[in-house]
Design brief:
CATH topology of the largest domain: Rossmann fold
CATH class of the largest domain: Alpha Beta
Oligomer: single chain
Distance between the termini: 69 Å
Strand content: 15-25%
Radius of gyration: 27 Å
Strand order of the largest sheet: 12-11-13-14-10-15-16
């Protein structure tokens, strides 16, 4: 029975993206060599945190998983139990209901455990599962430390950092979690309400491990052992606690170090511009863009993922029943409302098919072959009849110069808005007559950049 439970635990951990198959194999070797359970081996090696293992085991057993803190306990539930009973069974009374007490344990309750706890409570007991170290720490806070017993593993290192900050970011309503390298190590930032807020630091030595853990989380490829982290992206739909989310990873590698950015899209609430944590003025400006009946809108950000999320939110904010088609190099798994044409090796063909489909709104990623004037001209022509959101990586000024050089004609007439997203928020600019004139006359790239800055 125990072997079957551990086999299920390992398979479920891989399926959920918590660990990789290689990490599971390593944990099994450690468990065999040291006589540990698989769950304890995963925790002791730092591959997974105790809270993650608790959540997986609770799901398999069909009982609640709880993550208690001392100040969240119900004193009425604690009162009937002696220190001796709670220490002996490593039990933590959580709450008292009319006809039963909810008690958290680190292991499945045996009949003898249930009988002893119900005797102490004087009423029936129902059970939840919690991490052993959490139970011991709270008991130590209440009764004093038990020096004869070593505290359980707490899941330190990169694994702990990722999941602790991800849980906190969700609790605080953040839309992005970032690990950025600077001269003092790794700074952790959350994007909350459109602002980037510092929420802690990690040691610089954790950089490679953090990148590896984040890649495992979203199923992105890993670099070879000892190699410098490379730029990559990845996305996964998963459940964190009680929240269904899409996690969208971008790893940016540069001379100054590595930046890992994890976008957080909650699926349990309607997606809107507000869920991106933008300020009121930005939301109003983007809603106006979404109301355009036609035109070309450049949506630029530091990563394609950031630009894609912004365009996605603009489209989802439209409540007028317009049809939306997205031409992309990979599937947006979290958006069933879009018609999606995904053809990594045949994007020009996919673009032509999308235009023939004649949607009201067309979203085009910049992986489409921009070096082919035919595709750019098709995009410009389509924008004269429908709203086209053209996604760019970098700045709209650079993207506009690229378009002006390669597109043959019509750009000045259809260009409707320039949207730039960065750490400071989102700016929405509309091209004035001078910029339109420069595009019509095919002015120099420098002139176009200067005019974009002046919009």
């Amino acid at each position: 029975m125990r072997a079957l439970e551990e086999q299920t635990l390992g398979g479920r951990a891989v399926e959920c993206g918590i660990i990789s198959p290689d990490e599971l194999a390593r944990a099994k070797r450690v468990a065999t060599e040291h006589g540990l359970s698989l769950g304890d081996a995963l925790i002791e090696t730092g591959i997974a945190t105790e809270d993650q293992i608790v959540a997986l085991r609770a799901a398999e057993l069909g009982i609640p998983a709880v993550f208690p803190y001392a100040n969240t306990l119900d004193s009425r539930a604690l009162t009937p139990f002696s220190e001796q009973v709670l220490r002996r069974f490593e039990a933590l009374p959580m709450s008292r209901e009319e006809d039963h007490v909810v008690v958290a344990l680190a292991e499945v309750a045996s009949p003898a455990t249930r009988h002893a706890l119900e005797d102490a409570a004087g009423m029936p007991v129902t059970f939840a599962l919690a991490g052993r170290h959490r139970i011991r720490n709270i008991l130590a806070d209440r009764f004093g430390p038990e020096t004869s017993r070593r505290a359980g593993p707490e899941g330190s290192g990169a694994v702990g950092a990722v999941y602790v900050h991800l849980a906190r970011a969700l609790d605080e309503g953040a839309t992005e979690l970032r690990f950025d390298h600077d001269e003092r190590g790794i700074v952790v930032r959350y994007r909350i309400g459109g602002r980037s807020v510092e929420r802690g630091r990690e040691h610089a030595s954790e950089q490679l491990a953090l990148c590896a853990r984040l890649r495992v989380l979203v199923g992105a490829p890993q670099e070879p052992d000892g190699a410098t982290p490379f730029a990559t992206t990845g996305s996964v739909r998963t459940r964190i606690g009680a929240t269904n989310v899409v996690l969208d990873l971008s790893v940016l590698a540069g001379a100054g170090g590595v930046s890992c950015r994890l976008g957080i899209i909650r699926l349990d609430s309607p997606v809107s511009l507000e869920t991106l944590g933008l300020g009121g003025s930005s939301v109003a400006a983007l809603r106006r863009v979404g109301s355009f009946g036609h035109g070309l809108v450049l949506v630029a950000a530091d990563t394609s993922r950031h630009a894609r999320r912004l365009a996605y939110a603009i489209a989802c904010s439209m409540d007028d029943g317009r049809s939306i088609t997205c031409v992309a190099s990979r599937l947006l798994e979290h958006e069933p409302r879009f018609t999606q044409l995904v053809a990594p090796d045949r994007l020009p063909r996919a673009l032509r098919a999308a235009i023939r489909h004649a949607p009201d709104v067309l979203i085009v990623e910049d992986e489409v072959a921009w070096d082919r004037a035919e595709e750019l001209d098709a995009i410009v022509r389509a924008a004269s009849e429908r709203l086209v959101l053209l996604l760019c990586t970098g700045k709209t000024s650079a993207a506009l110069v690229d378009l002006a050089v390669r597109a043959r004609s019509g750009l000045a007439r259809v260009l409707s808005a320039l949207i730039d997203a960065d750490d400071g928020g989102v700016s929405v600019r509309e091209p004035g007559p001078e910029l339109r004139g420069a595009l019509e006359e095919r002015a120099s790239p420098r002139r176009i950049r200067d005019l974009v800055k002046g919009c």
